Amino acid sequence: MRFKKFCLITFIALIANIGISQEGIPIYSDYLTDNYYLLHPSMAGVANCAKVRLTARQQWFGVDDAPSLQTLSINSRVGDSPVAVGGIVFNDSNGYHSTVGGYATFAYHLMFSRNEIDLNMLSFGLNAGFLQYKLDETEFLAPGEFDRLVAGIEQSATNFNIDFGFSYHFIDFYAHFTAKNILANEGINFNDQGFEFNNLRTYLFSTGYTFSKYGSDWSYEPSLMYMYRDATQESSIDVNFKVYREMDFGKVWGGLSYRRSLDGAEFVDGGGVSSQKLQYITPFLGVDYNNFVFAYTYSYQANTINFNTGGFHQITLGYNFNCRREKYECNCPAVN
After folding, report:
1. Residue 2: strand, helix, or coil
2. Rounded CA gap, 124 and 40, in Å?
3. Residue 219 near residue 212, CB atoms below 8 Å
4. How far does Cα 194 stand from its chain's mean position?
5. Residue 267's closest CA among 304, 235, 232?
6. What number of helices (H) and strands (E) belong to the chain?
7. What is the full DSSP assignment across 15-62?
8. What are the backbone angles phi and psi of residue 31, rounded to the nearest 5°?
9. Buried b (16+ CB within 10 A) or exposed e, 218-253
C-alpha cells in the first residue's frame, strides 16, 4: 500500500511540477476568439481599440477538481505613438495543483506603409512575468497517517521568465512568431524532491489570410498555428477556418479548429501495444456588439483512449475602448 502511495505521489508531483504548470498559460484555442495577444506579446496594441478580454475555461463537467483556467488581459497603444503596453493575469488549477501568474508587456509597432490605406507593419513584443506554483497536500493523508514524502501543507514556489516575439501584417496577410519561457529556471523542490527541468522554451508560429469579395459582408480567414516544445521535442499543429459576417450592430463570427499532435503516445490495447496522437476538434462562435465581445468555445478530444469523454467549455467576454478610426483598407479584423 505504501509503495502504491509513493508511486502516486511521485507521479502527481512530477506531472504538477514539470508537465503542466511551469510553461505559464496553457496553450488552448483562446486566440481564435479575438485574443491573439494571449499567445503573442507583439499583438499588444495592434488593434485600433484598447482591448480587455476575460476568459473562463472548464474541462470535464462532473469531475471533481477538473482542470480550469481563468485569464484577464488588457492591451493598448500609448496615445498615437508606436509603443503599446499590456498585461495578463491568470489562474490555472488542476486537482491538487494550481498556478497563478501575471505578465507585463511592452510592444513596438514599426510602420512601412507610405499612407493610411495599405497596411504594412512589423511589430515586436516582450513579456516579463512571475509564476507561482502551488501544491496542496492537506488532503493527501488521513488523520493520524504519516509519510515522510508528504508534508501535509500547501507548498509554493515562484519563478520569473520572459517571452519575446514579432508579428508582421501586410494588407490581408499576417504571421506571428513567439519564443516563450526564454530563461532557464531552477527545478522546483517540494518535500526535498527536486525535479530539474530548466528548459521550458516553447515556440509558436501562426499565419493566416483573410479574404472576401468586393462589397460583400462576408469574409473568410484560414489560418495555421504550429507549436514546438524544445525540451521534449513535442510538436502540434492547428488548422483553423473562421468566417465573419458584418451586421448593423457589429459583427458575427465563428469557425472550426482542428489540433493534432505530430507525436504519438503508446498504450496497452488488449494483448498488444497501440499508439494514438492527440486530436482536438474545436468549434467556436462569437459576436461583436458595439464595443462588447461575447464568444463560446467547445473542444472535443477525438481520441480512442482518453480520461473523459466530456468536452472543454470556454466563455470569452471582451470590451473595446479608446477606439480610433479604422485606417486601413484591408480584411484585417485583428487590426481594424
Report:
1. helix
2. 9
3. yes
4. 27
5. 304
6. 1, 16
7. IIIIIISTTSS---SGGGTT-GGGT-GGGTT-SSSEEEEEEEEEESTT
8. -65, -20
9. ebbbebebebbbeeeeeebebebebebeeeeeebbb
Residue among 139, 105, 98 nearest 16 (CA): 98
DSSP code for 184: -
Is residue 323 within 8 A of residue 48, CB to CB? The reply is yes
Question: DSSP for 126-169?
Answer: EEEEEEEEEEE-TTSS-TT---TT---SEEEEEEEEEEEEEEEE
SS (H, E, C) 108-119: EEEECCCCCCCC
Which helix (H) or strand (E) segment is 297 a member of?
strand 292-301
Task: Report the C-alpha gap between 331 and 107 in whole angstroms.
Answer: 23
Q: Which residues pair with 122 in a beta bridge?
A: 110, 168
CA distance 99 to 47: 29
Least confident of 133-147, 154-168, 250-264: 133-147
Query: Residue 68's closest CA among 26, 13, 22?
Result: 26
User: Whole-model pTM?
Assistant: 0.84
Dig out the grid coordinates for 165 from the structure. Answer: 516575439
Q: What is the pLDDT of residue 331?
A: 81
> Is pLDDT larger for residue 95 or for residue 173?
173
Q: Taking Cα atoms as reference points, which of 253, 228, 257 lies closest to residue 241? A: 257
